[in-house]
Amino acid sequence: MSKKLSNEGLREVWDRYAPRYDRDIGFFERIQFSGGREWVCPQATGDVLEVAIGTGLNLPHYPADVRLTGLDLSPAMLGIARTRAAELGREVELCEGDAQALPFPDESFDTVVCTLGLCGVPDERAAIAEMHRVLRPGGKLLLLDHVGSQHRVVHFVQSLLEKLSVRMCGDYQTRRPLPLVEQAGFVVQRQERLKLGMVERVAAVKA
Fold it and tell me: Which GO terms describe its biological process (predicted)?
């Protein structure tokens, strides 16, 4: 098992990586996650929390009438998101914080969004529980991430890659968040597996 990075270590990694993130993720967006943001964000309604908002790549895809809050561990990533929001004329409250201990009261939001973020949280079970806590009854959880494939050969390759990626940037390749979503008290309405089962899209509601 690869050693987990602490929150301080993760913050340092992502602060350093922030200036290159948009360029590098663009490659993976084209070959692996194409259409994912466009699938997730238009489903958001009301008061919306985006967990791990990063550099704000989702901002152009939200409906104009949502009230948006974005949280991220990295101040440098948030700085880029703030600039992007200003360029788009999008009003958004941005705050630094930990997905595993969200700094919001219970039942604060109608929608929680997390795209390509759960794979980088040290304890994804805690993060999902926090998302459940801050959602109002009937609220929506919208997820996009890379996950462990059901194909044995692909999963084996992912496991090898994970030994390096967890140590370097806290990125897990083989997680399967869907069972944790259901265990947390969500009812899954839509779930899609793409790209040899390596990409998952989930839309669920708080029961």
Answer: methylation
Identify the bridge partners of residue 48 per DSSP, sorted by sequence position. Answer: 68, 111
Q: Which residues contact 119 (CB under 8 A, 6 or more apart)?
A: 145, 146, 147, 171, 172, 173, 175
Q: Which long-range contacts (CB under 8 A, 24 or more apart) does 80-85 make?
A: 80/18, 80/19, 80/21, 80/22, 80/55, 80/56, 81/53, 81/54, 81/55, 81/56, 82/56, 84/55, 84/56, 84/57, 84/59, 85/56, 85/59
Residues 66-108: tens digit of each pLDDT = 999 999 999 999 999 999 999 999 999 999 999 999 999 999 9
| Assessment of whether the complete model's pTM goes beyond 0.85 | yes
Say how far apart CA 194 and CA 54 lie, in whole Å. 23
* Residue 42 to residue 22: CA distance in whole angstroms: 21
